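Worked example 3 (structure in, sequence out).
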């Protein structure tokens, strides 16, 4: 009981984060079941319920229940800091001083149905339906800007009063409906082989961009002169295919392969800009907002997974997964790999302890790789199973001042430090 309270306390006290580039590339599309998320995002072999339709439709042929449904809530919380370099009177670097601290929370939900039946002479056939978000383009930035005021003798006032706020907000969350099926082939004798496929339909999505400069006084010193803007874009619907197969080599070794096709959805008119000096996406240039429309690509994904299961009543499972993510140079994004490790240990009380690590290379040329820590557990009550999971990652990079001010003599890029905490709670009921 104590270790479960420790895991829950740890998940609630970690920092959280968001990406400045959500508007351009979206968040990580690997949002799977709570069990597979807790086990290092090893979704290929460890997805449960309707999440199999999304990540491994071949697993639908291995389900023993005739029918079931699940529901999952996802919470992405954020914490982001922007810092400027501070130097002494001799020009020597002292420290990075924070001038922006943004917090942001985004919620999402997914649900699905699944079931299987035995087909004489062939094996077990399963089908499923999954409904949930593919990614999101949400980002929020709010900077409190201060000015200066000379205090006369005997006068009470702040030397650096608030003069206004500089705000940027982008929104959009493509919703995906997945339909798929899988078959466990029984006529192959001792070979335990499953194959499956799915079609993923992405609905049309509205994406919004808002820029506002809120001034408290007529004097706009230290504030950007950008004009307020509120624009919306409709991202057209699209779809992509997914295929997978799993095989049990031995009683203690499972392997899996999967492939997802790429999907591109773009408006008829779109424009964006990439800084040639650092390779990073830009929001503003020469006093104007340079983004118009949207051009989003869900990359092609090829995955290979291996699961090692102990012979002692499946008390321990160790999993490895490799994902090859390919953009084919779309928007100057580079192909990258994800290396995943996860484990699940079942205690004598039947309670699972799950954890894992993910090492992800960067798709944006100027960014560094990111490591992710995952954790979670679950509880079964009759036919009802409740799972929870969390992931945490941290990233830092240099970026120019988001809202440039006329006359700013800053020559060095600011330091952006953001972290991400993603929590999941899922309930699955099997008949």
């Amino acid at each position: 009981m104590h270790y479960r309270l420790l895991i829950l306390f740890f998940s609630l006290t970690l920092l959280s984060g968001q990406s400045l580039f959500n508007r351009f590339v979206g968040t990580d599309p690997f949002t799977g079941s709570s069990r597979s998320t807790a086990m290092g995002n090893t979704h290929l072999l460890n997805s449960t319920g309707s999440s199999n339709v999304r990540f491994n439709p071949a697993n639908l042929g291995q389900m023993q229940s005739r029918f079931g449904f699940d529901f999952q809530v996802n919470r992405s919380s954020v914490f982001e800091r922007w810092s400027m370099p501070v130097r002494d009177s001799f020009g020597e670097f002292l420290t990075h001083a924070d001038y922006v601290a943004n917090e942001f929370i985004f919620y999402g939900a997914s649900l699905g149905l699944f079931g299987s039946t035995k087909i004489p002479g062939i094996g077990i056939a399963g089908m499923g339906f999954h409904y949930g978000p593919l990614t999101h383009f949400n980002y929020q930035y709010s900077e409190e800007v201060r000015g200066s005021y000379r205090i006369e003798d005997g006068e009470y006032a702040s030397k650096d009063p608030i003069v206004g706020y500089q705000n940027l907000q982008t929104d959009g969350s493509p919703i995906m409906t997945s339909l798929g099926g899988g078959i466990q082939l029984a006529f192959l004798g001792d070979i335990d082989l499953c194959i499956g496929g799915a079609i993923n339909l992405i609905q049309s999505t509205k994406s919004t961009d808002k820029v506002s400069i809120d001034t408290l006084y007529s004097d706009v010193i230290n504030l950007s002169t950008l004009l307020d803007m509120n624009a919306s874009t409709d991202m057209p619907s699209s779809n992509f295919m997914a295929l997978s197969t799993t095989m049990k080599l031995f009683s203690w070794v499972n392997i899996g392969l999967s492939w997802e096709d790429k999907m591109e959805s773009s408006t008829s008119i779109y424009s964006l800009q990439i800084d040639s000096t650092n390779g990073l996406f830009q929001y503003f240039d020469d006093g104007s907002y340079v983004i118009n429309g949207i051009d989003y690509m869900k990359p092609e994904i090829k995955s290979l997974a291996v699961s090692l299961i102990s012979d002692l009543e499946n008390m321990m499972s160790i999993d490895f997964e490799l994902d090859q993510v390919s953009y084919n140079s779309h928007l100057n994004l580079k192909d990258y790999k994800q290396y995943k490790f996860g484990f699940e240990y079942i205690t004598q009380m039947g309670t699972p302890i799950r954890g894992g690590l993910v090492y992800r290379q960067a798709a944006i040329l100027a960014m560094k790789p990111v490591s992710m820590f995952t954790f979670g557990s679950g509880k079964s009550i009759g036919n009802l199973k409740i799972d929870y999971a969390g992931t945490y990652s941290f990233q830092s990079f240099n970026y120019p001042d988001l809202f440039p001010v006329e006359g700013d003599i800053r020559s060095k890029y600011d330091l952006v430090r953001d972290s991400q905490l993603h929590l999941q709670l899922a309930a699955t009921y099997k008949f």
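Notes: The chain has one domain: 2-75+106-135+174-211+218-415. The domain at 2-75+106-135+174-211+218-415 is CATH 2.40.160.60 (Porin).
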